[in-house]
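Input set for joint prediction.
Command: fold jointly, output tokens.
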Amino acid sequence: MASRIGKNISVSIFGQSHSAGIGCVVEGIPAGKKIDLDELQAFLSRRAPGGMPWSTPRKEADLPEFLGGLVNGVTCGAPLAALIRNTNTKSSDYDELRRVPRPGHADYVANMKFHGAQDVSGGGHFSGRLTAPLCIAGGIAIQLLRDEGVEVGAHIARIAGIADDAFALHGLSSTDVHVAHAKTFPVLNDAQGERMIAAIAEAREAGDSVGGVVECAATGMPVGVGEPMFDGVENAVARMLFGIPAVKGVEFGRGFDVADMRGSENNDGMRIVDGRVVFESNNAGGANGGITTGEPVVVRCAFKPTPSISRAQHSIDMQAGTNEGLSVHGRHDPCVVVRAVPVVEAAVALALYDLLLESRMD
Amino acid sequence: MASRIGKNISVSIFGQSHSAGIGCVVEGIPAGKKIDLDELQAFLSRRAPGGMPWSTPRKEADLPEFLGGLVNGVTCGAPLAALIRNTNTKSSDYDELRRVPRPGHADYVANMKFHGAQDVSGGGHFSGRLTAPLCIAGGIAIQLLRDEGVEVGAHIARIAGIADDAFALHGLSSTDVHVAHAKTFPVLNDAQGERMIAAIAEAREAGDSVGGVVECAATGMPVGVGEPMFDGVENAVARMLFGIPAVKGVEFGRGFDVADMRGSENNDGMRIVDGRVVFESNNAGGANGGITTGEPVVVRCAFKPTPSISRAQHSIDMQAGTNEGLSVHGRHDPCVVVRAVPVVEAAVALALYDLLLESRMD
Amino acid sequence: MASRIGKNISVSIFGQSHSAGIGCVVEGIPAGKKIDLDELQAFLSRRAPGGMPWSTPRKEADLPEFLGGLVNGVTCGAPLAALIRNTNTKSSDYDELRRVPRPGHADYVANMKFHGAQDVSGGGHFSGRLTAPLCIAGGIAIQLLRDEGVEVGAHIARIAGIADDAFALHGLSSTDVHVAHAKTFPVLNDAQGERMIAAIAEAREAGDSVGGVVECAATGMPVGVGEPMFDGVENAVARMLFGIPAVKGVEFGRGFDVADMRGSENNDGMRIVDGRVVFESNNAGGANGGITTGEPVVVRCAFKPTPSISRAQHSIDMQAGTNEGLSVHGRHDPCVVVRAVPVVEAAVALALYDLLLESRMD
Amino acid sequence: MASRIGKNISVSIFGQSHSAGIGCVVEGIPAGKKIDLDELQAFLSRRAPGGMPWSTPRKEADLPEFLGGLVNGVTCGAPLAALIRNTNTKSSDYDELRRVPRPGHADYVANMKFHGAQDVSGGGHFSGRLTAPLCIAGGIAIQLLRDEGVEVGAHIARIAGIADDAFALHGLSSTDVHVAHAKTFPVLNDAQGERMIAAIAEAREAGDSVGGVVECAATGMPVGVGEPMFDGVENAVARMLFGIPAVKGVEFGRGFDVADMRGSENNDGMRIVDGRVVFESNNAGGANGGITTGEPVVVRCAFKPTPSISRAQHSIDMQAGTNEGLSVHGRHDPCVVVRAVPVVEAAVALALYDLLLESRMD
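tokens >
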């Protein structure tokens, strides 16, 4: 039980990298919501592979067909079901992988868990390709959140040790969150972006890969959304983000830096300004006790370097019980972080929209 | 819907800091399991306040009464229900807080969410005291995991910028994980521990507080536990850990450091040694694709400095709509990290035991 | 995983017949709701045993203590936790039952399922006594529903082959639903009630027991509550009702009679009267496609005769593997139906209130 | 949140009668299970419309395409996703229904719930056609149960007041459950079946429809499956069965008849025979306290007569606020009971298989 998430918005992801198709079933979207399918397609294109020096040469248009839930582009209350056909598959690339697991991938654990019955082609259900249906669901959540005054956007915060500028925790506007992701290479600081691109290229030439960090923010969340203890903003967003392959860390607001701070520095003071409550800072990243403060929700997640590299690695032959060397050929991104930006937005939007619906019961 | 978590082991936490009692209902523990109640009490004592210079003077024995689920110390298949009475409460300390929210606490957001009906005394359901029932459930999970060959232990990884030694990601033994937490001040490196204690004392004298990091490991998890996508090891552990008040970041294995690594460095190579599969490193922290590799699961979480400080802070009067200064008096830990160590162990154990049960259906 | 139910209102039931106590944790009740505790106590008293010729001589006051979730009788947003102490227990009555299961009880299946570790005293977690915490949760739901204009009430529809009058499916008023349950013996037709009482007495004298049917109705449910397919009114109410020990059948509206009807008889026609939509009948029992029509929700459930009878029965010795005769002594109701009336109301109210909250997300 | 069900086997149903397709996502099936797709297709054909005098003339082959989860007909651990294209749709039949709701259908309540945005064509997501994907999931569950020694089969128990023979509650064999459903008209007593066919024809000619009852049994369930209180056999099966359109009542074992029985009649005595525990009867219908006894699980559910009839009915114009007469034309079954037989088998099998997996955690 693994590929479904959400209480009020239930997202169920299906398909494997080389099965007939991949898709999602999304339940709980209120009826009567107009979905802008062109905008959704543009959102999916940001994730889709193809052409850029930092991504795999595999080209997939990622055109979803809506099997149910939409009537003339408007939600009808039935589950929304979308399908993307898998077209550009080369299963022969992967025959060796049934025996020799790729380090850093799920090949070995999947073989143990599923007793050898797992779909190995292209990583099967573990493929990064499964983030496409997550983006369908999340791209719709982004639109639904906008109707509620919430804007979600992300940028590359770091790649290969090179840092982008950070989102201002405090004072971040709804416009600010959209600056980066509108660019082909979604950073705030383009000069740093150039250095990242160069570092990616350098790793690729070395037959290697690099990791990074994505930062995402949501502005306009009303005060009081999220639940205490286990269904707070951080719980929900983190659980969703760790569903993206390669994520190894998640932090909110000042994140791990709080470990070195004092309470007097970290606490966000409050003032009354023009009759309204305002915070003097947003070190909390938009949530206290799991509940939104009204300040922007700001989260960062760390992506490990793409495990598929052409450099020689130590692996094993699971059937023969012998050592094997492995060089992963085929088509792979030397850095998943760039294409992960919309995926992070999708994940954050889904988690927040679910909580926003939940707050209707307060 | 907030204070319940778990699929196969469902934990429901109830109570407020100053209500009649706090406790938990734990469903799903197999029948016929002998619970060592003395060991459980010792575990709870590690979290309980009282006496140490880094903790609140409020003393609570945290003696749970089992209302159901146990017959002569053996689980009977019915839900396990435990109650800790609240005895040492001083509600008068908190009257002002109904009007003037403490920065860094949930006072303001709770007031907005619950329309002023929240229990303000002692932080109500948001109090760190609610980690006591989590420790009942988790302390039992630790015992149940041990029966399966899994050992869970944690230590203070960092306080106020002072770092403890780290758990060896690779080669960590079941003995290693228990070294630190057996100590009064649970660190691996006692000299660094002394410096931390001094830093805590210094902050306390300044009317301030400090944050830190706890690192937790579980050895002996079999290969193949955890589910792809949203119910993997990281998803489940992170969601649980963010249920502990003050946690702002969670990372696994090399965590955020992966952002600066190359694939060739980060990938964990594999070898056959004496006919068995071994990993050459454990940068993954025990899970790939959400599924255990058989290597130790290693996780770190960041705690913000205790928000309750006696130094003057900016707050507001929510009823009058005016600015207010606030100095939080009463009994508070200048650093929650020390007492959080068993809480982190409890949370990790609960998440892993739930997944271990799930794997019976593979 | 068994003793928890509900999506928006989560009810977790704990305790055994002879454990320290029984109780419930109810999560999801909006904050700021005033609970009338006297009314709740009166409701619980309708279920409590004691004194009447049709019930067990065991007397339990069923006085709940609220451990959390209430501040001065008002919900505070934290889970509501209630405890009833078990006081009048005679465990010695049950020692034989560890070996010799009572026909019609869960003794045998519990022994097989829980490998002999089940709590046998008084039926353990399977005891009808566990309906007391269900009544706490449901009694509160009844009050919350009333705030929304919904009235829930039940009556004995049948005992030992003797039928009470039926609720009018169509035209039932909010007053009508309360007529019967205000009586000591909750029937609509008191003459029939007298005959039922006589039949119960007769069965008791014969060392036997009788079954029956309870009918429950909820008026005032707005149109459009309930979800298609698996979370409709019938699904939710039925799942809850089968949680009451001894229930073997559940039917809505015309129920099993529809099998013998034609569409032209069964369909509920519609008319516009004074500008409002009205149905001409309510054979559907208040729901079509799982969704409320605005007509009263009417449900009936069948209770089997109390399995504990003093007449000799065939049983076995599970340890010796031999045949045994069994006469169940101790304190038992010759007919559970009378005391089940408030339990059915509680169950129906909980299911409907959960759906009512769900409809806020439409 | 409506079209998903199951804890260990999660079934998510999508699509509308006239959308691009209908289908299901089934999560939780263990990896490595061989699915017999020919047998599945034969199972689906029993439900598919077409040709018989008791069913709609609409012909749909109901050929599912597996989008994921199967590799060479073997489950791979990823969610199983199946799609049936909607081909033979005539949306123009239904234009009037946006204004004038069909009595006995969900048209009116859907319009209220979904604010007019519901998909009206063919009943949208409320169509009986949505039982096809339920049969995909359930047909697979039937195969998986057989691997565990469990056989599931159903028959028509009653149509239009004409009763088939009943399954023997006690002594029913795995062969017995398959006798009826192998026939074109699935009854035990063919002479009674002929009378039912005549009654259906008579109703059709009268522009009317008839209801009925389906009885289903599962043999071979081991003792100890099912959970106390809310996740017992009856709770799970009933919740699933009420997901089938037109079901208005569900009963187990002796069902509503228990209301008129005495405990001494109804209790199932036990004996030791050849060293094994045997029951002397099976009035309980295979479960006590929600947990299987090892006897066959026997359940009956009542279906209302098809609401779509060509006879004139009273309805309204929801837009104009006026009274309207309505004769439902188009293609409809005069009796859904015949085609419902495999649907009931599917529902029962899914519920039982989920509980069987759950019992692995005992």
